[in-house]
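queue> holo job accepted (3-O-alpha-D-glucopyranosyl-D-fructose)
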Amino acid sequence: LDELSFQADLSLQRLKPRLEQVWEQYSTSDERQKIFETRLREHWRPLFAQLHELYSGRYDFFYHLEQVLLTCALAFAQRSEDLCEIDRHRVIEPDWFQSENVVGGALYVDLFSDNLSRLREHVGYFKDLGLTYLHLMPLFAVRPGNNDGGYAISNYRTIAPSLGTVEDLKLLADDLREAGISLVLDFVFNHTSDDHEWAQRAQAGQREYQEFYYTFADRSVPEQYERNLREIFPTVRRGNFTWHDGMGRWVWTTFNSFQWDLNYSNPAVFRAMLDEMLFIANLGVDFLRLDAVAFIWKQMGTSCENLPQAHLVIRAFNRLVRLAAPALVFKSEAIVHPDEVVKYIDKNECQVSYNPTLMALLWESLATRRTDLLVRTLSRRFSLPDGTSWVNYLRCHDDIGWTFDDDDAASIGINAYDHRNFLNAFYSGQFEGSFARGVPFQHNHETGDMRISGTMASLAGLERAIEQEDEEGKELAIRRMMLLHGVTLSIGGIPLLYMGEEWGMLNDYSFTTDPAKAGDSRWIHRPRMKWEYLEELDDESGRDSIRRRIFRSLQSMIAIRKRTLAFAGQEMKLFPTGNHHLLGYVRSNEASNVVVVANFTEHAQVLDANRLRTAGLGRFFKNLLNDVEYGTAEPVLLQPYELLWLKRI
Ligand code: OTU
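queue> job finished
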């Protein structure tokens, strides 16, 4: 027995009487107690080791250890029978989310249906589209005025009053579960709003709560940190610190000045946020989106991003979830260099993760009409550890940043700096001949860095084509959108729609009139749902409706995905097409293969069909998307932006 395991076991033995008190307080059944004990046998030692590594330097380590365990046990004791039942299933089948049946959507409750109780009336809408995973953008109580779209939380246990109550959320969670739809919420744990109770206590001078954050009496320490820090929102404020007049101190604020970074080197913060997290878990949440994971640990002399301790904190949270609420899956939101993104993905850390590199490179391929950088990147960076999964998306509520590896680019003769400038020019519509209508986000004039805002349809050319009454342009824009959806629906992992995409919704420029939003161009791609669009679905008068076509095509593609077993899981093999404008890959399961080929240009392209035969993939195929059959005796012709899901026949 090694020293740490010995200490872990001894600590647990000493803590047992405290656990007994929890069971007594909640009249926890013997059977439930046993479940917790069994889980402790599996998770306690690794958990102890993680907490020991993070916090054993503190004189009061054992006190915090006790508090963490009690917080976890209390949440377990309070978890509903229904949720415990799901826990039991998912412990046996931890890779349930890898099914071909899983298709996600994300939305803002207020913009979609005004509030939570109205949202319950639209469960049928999600089912109709084929969704089985629903991410509700942050809906907890927020500060007045600018609240960064819900990411400045003042209370993790109350819902923003305009959206409803915790009771409404629970009812919705029940309805969704009944309909086979998983509920996804954010855990905004890097920072709280400046009006959260802890921040208010800090402002009132309580030292205990000032230590929940990073506060400094003068500029000297912040300036030392600043030497190595990036600026995430440089147009909001230069640097990463904000002066707070009332408190008379500088506060670490990575994002907006009202978002105060939490101090995880303080174990009291770890415990307090664990408590908030398990409260959210017990509402009936299936996936927790861990916001801004890269920033949760700071260390002088480093970039304070992606530090090893950030991983440790998440791993410790993961163990605690395995103890109290194992049905819950963590989704990492790390929009950073691809080498760093994958480090968060592990059965014991975040089981699923956004795939920002695929997202960025799909747009890159549309702009360049070439797939070289995409193929190069997929060949080295798509595969993941067992039991984990990508979340593949095209747009979300945030901007697009050009996250690819500079050396990947250099290896195929692309200068990364120039290429990012080109992509920014292309997607902000400044590049001659661009079809896109995006706008800059967080342009940093010092470094030249820029990201892009805009809806999928506007970036894909629909807005410009409609404005110019360009029929061919509209056709190409729709094809671009369906092409990208067809990739995220088939490449491996959870496809995630950003609601509004199903109608091809265009940029909404009205945010500029709202002072709380005007400074943040991401609001351009957060449009309000227009329920009147639904009427167009059944209007068969022959009137040409772009929206009906987009909705119906997407709906049918989703349905096909859900009956194609080869689209489950994460295994993907690139298929060399021999054509720089095509992307090809093979998805397989024991029973069958599907070969996906995608044309990223507005010109017809030819695929040498012998490649299919010589790769042993078959000689006769059917495109699952339109039932057209192909044989390898003839070259395969792909129409502009055409996508093939080829199944051997
Ligand atoms: C996230 O995004 C959220 O998705 C944003 O909506 C929030 O504003 C922000 O955190 C603060 O809560 O910079 O432009 O590299 O990983 O954390 C979006 C930073 C962001 C990203 C990400 C951040």
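queue> The pocket of 3-O-alpha-D-glucopyranosyl-D-fructose is lined by residues 148-149, 151, 188, 232, 255, 291-292, 294, 333-336, 397-399 (CB under 6 Å).
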